[in-house]
Amino acid sequence: MHVDAEPLFKLVNESRKELEPWLPWVKKIKSVEDEKKTLNKIIEHFGTGYSLNTIILFQNQPAGSISFNNFQDNAQSTEIGYWLGTKFVGKGIVHRAISGMCNLGFNDYVVHKIVLRAAVENQKSNHTAQKAGFHLDGVLRADELLQDGFHDENIYSLLKDEWETA
Fold first, then answer.
1. pLDDT by residue (tens digit) across 135-160?
2. Phi and psi at residue 134, in whole multiples of 5°?
3. Which of 35, 79, 86, 98 lies in disulfide reach of 15, CB 3.0 to 4.6 Å?
4. Which residue ranges make up each domain of the chain?
5. The domain at 52-165 falls in which architecture?
6. Which strand ranges, in their side-by-side order, compose the sheet holding 51-58?
């Protein structure tokens, strides 16, 4: 049923060391079957309008995933999340994926604001947010529970008019 489950599991497994410190869900993916369950949940969330998850492809192979999560009708906003397999890091893939998702969010989903959250210590994600033109709104203390405890979290945002003028 899920043609992407096996390659995604393989990619997560190969990238586990780099992903686990920042993404708590990685520990729960221990088999292809776990990945299938995750994909089922993603489909369910899409069906309810809670999120939109897409697979990042690079040279016709899964390289990671990018998503809009927690659509807020009253604020016309969403949060963007992503992960990339270790062997694909440093190729500009996430930056292009974020650009594509922002275009989709602002034009097709008609959101006003896209939020990106990153643990203060996650230098790569913070750099990605800045490179993509997101504005640092502030730091939430002890806001993200990771495998080694609570971490402060940078909150970035990008507004539709900022996107259009960039």
1. 999 999 999 999 899 999 999 999 99
2. -75, 145
3. 86
4. 52-165
5. 3-Layer(aba) Sandwich (3.40)
6. 51-58, 61-72, 77-84, 113-119, 149-159, 135-146
